[in-house]
Amino acid sequence: MSKAVSLIGVPTDIGAGHRGASMGPEALRVAGLGEALKARGVDVLDRGNLAGPYNPWLPPTEGYRHLNEVVAWNVALRDAVAAELEGGRLPIVLGGDHCLAIGSITAVAAHTRKTGRKLRIIWLDAHADFNTSAITPTGNVHGMPVSCLCGIGPAPLVEIGDRKPVIDPSVVRQIGIRSVDEGERRLVHDVGLDIYDMRYIDEVGMRRVMEEALEGVDADTHLHVSFDVDFLDPSIAPGVGTTVKGGPTYREAQLVMEMIADTGRMASLDIVELNPAFDKRNQTARLAVDLVESLFGKSTLMRA
């Protein structure tokens, strides 16, 4: 894992169904993300915020809300992440809603092909994000990033990278899933997406889930973590627009992060869907910072 990271703020809720995720980057900064990582000996550069189109807050057009604006934000992020990877730094995307994973993972996937490395994506989320315009009437693209990355979606998004599809579904491991639309459920089964839903976590425990999700990660693997804050149970993380009861507890979430850190292979990170408009005294942002510290090696005294 690189000890040199770059924070990239992406202040937009362009793909979301609620306003407010655009304030996520500043909430993470106020919660002390940069300072916490510096205290762990990490070289931190805050690149500030990307610029992009404002959110016009319009209904769907041909099945998608704000498609042109979504594309613009993701192209800007794709290029920003690519530049950090090229410079040998670990990009941390401060979202913003989860549609931004299209841009960040597009850059990561291209980088792994260029460098001849394997890609593994750990997708921490309450939702599978494998919707299409035919499945969901909302047209909100934050419910579609994984399907778009896998080549199912509007041409401007599925063709955003150096190849189509951007990724193969086999590189994705989704953890914490507990809200999937009926049509989406059929689609993820058809493509063989590897999903560790909450029932499976309840049955076998988070340790086994993470052992399975990280199986095969080695020195040739670029591990990308896409951390949607609604992955967490809303009792500990109320600051999201799409809360779903029954998510991982604080300790389960810490175990996830610690086991990812133990691999030493995390090379890029998204933090998305933090919505201060729904939060309580920045509680969720502070929890997110705590968990990201664990991704960078914070652990109990027994394993210090």
Describe the fold and architecture.
The chain is of the alpha/beta class. It has helices at 24-30, 33-39, 67-86, 101-115, 145-149, 155-158, 182-191, 198-204, 206-213, 250-263, 283-295, and strands spanning 4-10, 43-49, 90-95, 118-124, 172-177, 194-197, 221-228, 266-272. The chain is built from eleven helices and eight strands. The protein has an eight-stranded parallel beta sheet with strand order 2-1-3-8-7-4-5-6, sandwiched between helices. Helix 7 links the parallel strand 5 (172-177) and strand 6 (194-197). Helix 8 crosses helix 9 and helix 10 packs parallel to helix 11 (283-295). 52% of the residues are buried. The model has no long low-confidence stretch (mean pLDDT 96). It catalyses: L-arginine + H2O = urea + L-ornithine. InterPro entries: Arginase (IPR014033), Ureohydrolase (IPR006035), Ureohydrolase_dom_sf (IPR023696), Ureohydrolase_Mn_BS (IPR020855).
